[in-house]
Automatic annotation (TrEMBL):
Highest classification ranks of the organism: Bacteria, Pseudomonadati, Pseudomonadota, Gammaproteobacteria, Pseudomonadales
PANTHER family: ARGININE-BINDING EXTRACELLULAR PROTEIN ARTP, MEMBRANE-BOUND LYTIC MUREIN TRANSGLYCOSYLASE F
InterPro entries recorded: Ectoine_EhuB, Solute-binding_3/MltF_N
The UniProt record lists the keyword ATP-binding: no
Domain Solute-binding protein family 3/N-terminal: 39-274
Signal sequence range: 1-29
CDD domains reported for this sequence: PBP2_Ehub_like (cd01002)
Keywords: Signal
Recorded family membership: Belongs to the bacterial solute-binding protein 3 family.
UniProt-listed NCBIfam families: ectoine_ehuB (TIGR02995)
Gene of this entry: ehuB
Domain of life: Bacteria
UniProt name for this protein: Ectoine/hydroxyectoine ABC transporter substrate-binding protein EhuB
Keyword Signal part of the UniProt annotation: yes
């Protein structure tokens, strides 16, 4: 995309001394000032449909386009996108290795202790990929928990790890991968029995695989809340904790983007629907306080 530059993480890090100086300077000046003068860095994990390298070699994705639409009215048009493993995104932001997280990231209280968040962009449920015909009849995390032989694949550092634990799935039956594509490859190679990720990511993986040997497990029963209703995860951008001016400006532009309909227009290009838009009154502060 125009204005989006692709960099390797190693190229972005540079020397430790230089990195510390740059981060200290940006923290004092604030990201609005830094972004307008020299641009911002947004860490990504190269995963569809969030933020990934397209066939033309440029970074694209739903998160990238929405981020550009939020920052442009703020006078910020240069965004570098260092790539790292998903599990390194939160520690990377906390350590100042980039200015914000541009990948798909769910709000959870544990992460809220070390980073800030924008208000939610979408909400999402979980989903399974299984072998064609769903031979083990897996339609929920509970189905996995009651079968001690089922091996569930998901990604290091995600909400899905905690959800599997909370549902009673044995840790030895949860196989972790750095990339969602690695988890899918493990299913295709019979090293796991089911892949568990957010629904948007599952849709993208199934489409990318284009294989009659796998399928999305339907129906899928979401984890229930205390009232027995399906629970949702809320996706947002990871932001610094110490820059309230930038966070407020970011959230104001996000709200305008949604009200104008442009947010949904961008998301629909990547398979989202109006059903994935979160309730308008849900905020990051509310989700962090859970």
């Amino acid at each position: 995309m125009k204005g989006i530059k692709l960099r390797s993480l190693s190229a972005t890090l540079g020397s430790a001394a230089l990195l510390s100086a740059v981060f200290a300077s940006s923290a004092m000046a604030g990201l609005l000032e830094k972004g307008r003068s020299s641009g911002l860095t947004a860490g990504i994990a190269n995963e569809q449909p969030y933020a990934y390298i397209g066939t033309d070699g440029n970074v694209t994705g739903a998160n990238v386009e929405v981020l550009q639409a939020i920052l442009k009215p703020l006078g910020i048009t240069k965004i570098d996108t260092p790539i790292t493993d998903f599990g390194s995104l939160v520690p990377g932001l906390a350590a100042g290795r980039f200015d914000l997280i541009g990948a798909g990231l769910f709000i959870n209280p544990a992460r809220c202790k070390v980073i800030g968040y924008s208000n939610p962009v979408t909400h999402s449920g979980g989903a399974f990929i299984v072998k064609a015909g769903n031979p083990l009849k897996l339609h929920s995390l509970k189905d996995v928990a009651v079968n001690a032989k089922v091996r569930l694949a998901t990604q290091t550092g995600t909400n899905q790890v905690q959800e599997a634990k909370d549902t009673g799935i044995a840790a030895s039956n949860v196989i972790l991968f750095d990339k969602d594509t690695e988890a899918l490859a493990a299913l295709q190679a019979d090293r796991v029995d089911v892949v568990y990720f957010p629904d948007a990511e599952i849709i993208s993986l199934v489409k990318k695989a284009n294989s009659p040997a796998i399928e999305r497990a339907l129906p899928f029963n979401q984890i229930p809340d205390a009232q027995g209703k399906p629970t949702w995860n809320y996706h947002a951008y990871g932001l610094p904790k110490n820059d309230p001016e930038f966070t407020q400006a970011f959230n104001d532009q996000l709200a305008k983007l949604r009200a104008s309909g442009e947010l949904l227009t961008i998301l629909q290009k990547y398979g989202y629907t109006e059903n994935e838009l979160p309730e308008a009154d849900v905020t990051a502060a509310q989700r962090c306080a859970l």
